[in-house]
Amino acid sequence: MPKMEIDTCSLPHAHIYLWQITETPEQLAQLIAGGNELLCKATQLFGSAKRRSEWLATRALLQHTPYKDAEILYHSNGAPYLSCSDKHISISHTQGYAAIAVADRPIGLDIEQPSRNAMRAVNAFLQPQEIERLDKCIEPAEEALRLWTVKEAAFKLHAGEADVLKDISTQPATEENSTHSYRITYRCGSVAQCLSTELCGLVISCCTEV
């Protein structure tokens, strides 16, 4: 389906675009310039039609942005970047959706379905003070999932500064309706900011440098 742009007023210079994947890989390829070649590449890269659709959906999504003339490429560490552009990009997928975030500065993005049970893994990705804060929440399962996406986004922003999600510390900054802002601190001392919101039933978190 056509892209949707998410309001990022709390994250200046960042734009998030979301695509609901209802098409087959072949249908997605028809929506992309050079789509047949990309479909062949996706087929070589992924044995799963689901993964091919996700990979192609991000390319189709890019066609609906101001960066449609750029190509999504990858650094040696697997981090994506845009060709012929000084913009930064981050990519995320969840069941039935693909999203990209584009910004003037390094950025990290994560999207998740609300059905994901993050409570089962809190001891693996939360620090003791975060678990204590979670215990005081009215809806701990919702907050746990939100923190999972926040940390995933922060990890993508500076993967070199965190070996695991537990190396990343979060502190709530503001809360407005369904939008939550967090201050991020990495074990190395670097800081970042993260905006977490809900759209189309998804939890979406985007992290940028302060």
Topology:
Layout: E1 4-6, E2 14-20, H1 25-29, H2 35-45, H3 49-62, E3 72-74, E4 80-82, E5 88-94, E6 97-103, E7 107-112, H4 122-125, H5 128-135, H6 140-157, E8 168-176, E9 179-186, E10 191-199, E11 202-209
Antiparallel strand pairs: 1-2, 2-6, 3-4, 5-6, 7-11, 8-9, 9-10, 10-11
Helix pairs in contact: 2-3
Q: Would you kindly provide a written description of the structure presented here, covering whatever features stand out?
A:
This protein is α+β, with helices and mostly antiparallel strands and 210 residues long. The chain is built from six helices and eleven strands. Strands 7-11-10-9-8 form a five-stranded antiparallel β-sheet, covered by helices on one side. A four-stranded antiparallel β-sheet has the order 1-2-6-5, covered by helices on one side. The chain has a two-stranded antiparallel sheet with strand order 3-4. A hairpin with a 5-residue loop joins strand 3 (72-74) and strand 4. Helix 2 runs antiparallel to helix 3. The chain starts with a strand and ends with a strand.
